[in-house]
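Q: What changes when 2'-O-acetyl adenosine-5-diphosphoribose is included in the input?
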Amino acid sequence: METVVVLTGAGISAESGCNTFRDNNGLWRNHRVEEVASPYAWQHTPQLVMDFYNERRKKLFTAQPNAGHYALVKLELKYRVAIITQNVDDLHERAGSSHVLHLHGELKKARSTVDPTLIYELNRWELKLGDLCEKGSQLRPHIVWFGEPVPMIEQAIETAKQADYFMVIGTSMVVYPAASLIHYIKKGIPTYYVDPNATSKAGNPLHIIKEKAGVGVPRLVEQMLNQ
Ligand code: OAD
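A: The predicted holo structure follows.
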């Protein structure tokens, strides 16, 4: 079975009602990154950080996967599909994808601030100051903040190297190390970029599909299933 490796970003979840970061009305237009998504912010204004992620988590509990997520599940009929997502939502999993690696953490999880191996599923939207891990320390969102290492990147690089096809969906490709994954794929493999604002950013044969994920991904998947 051939392997399709898919790198997704906020754009694939946009049609599910989750905000992107850098579009008009994106999250980083309305919030300064360092005020809500950095170790500095957590140290100085933890309530602001909690509020930011609580609001997004609350939305996520009512959001549903869209046609783009479901099409990637269908692709598993013919290919081994490995998804590397920059998204912290769980819409790929809820759609039914089998292999999903989260580069930037997961919104529905909380982590101990003294022991990073203590990670808890959150079955409620609100995480509060005062919610403690079993060792008695404050829980924080299980999110990779700016300035923090990206622990899953090594595994993502190994996955990217296995690709026979590479797809990039709904990401501005400006955040590293995620954007560097394209440099690890084998030379010459077919590479697709589905994004209304896609531009040529890769050396490999690059097929640009300037569509929303809900339209472009199902179409591409049909094409790949029929080839
Ligand atoms: P961005 O907001 O930077 O980019 C979103 C991309 O989605 C843009 O290229 C849009 O053109 C595209 N887009 C918008 N609507 C779409 C749709 N319906 N279908 C397909 N594409 C659509 O988001 P990311 O690239 O995901 O990190 O950002 C990467 C990282 O930056 C995030 O994981 C986050 C952020 O800071 C952390 O928080 C650590």
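Observations recorded in class: The beta strands are 3-8, 80-85, 100-102, 105-112, 119-121, 139-143, 165-169, 191-194, 206-209.
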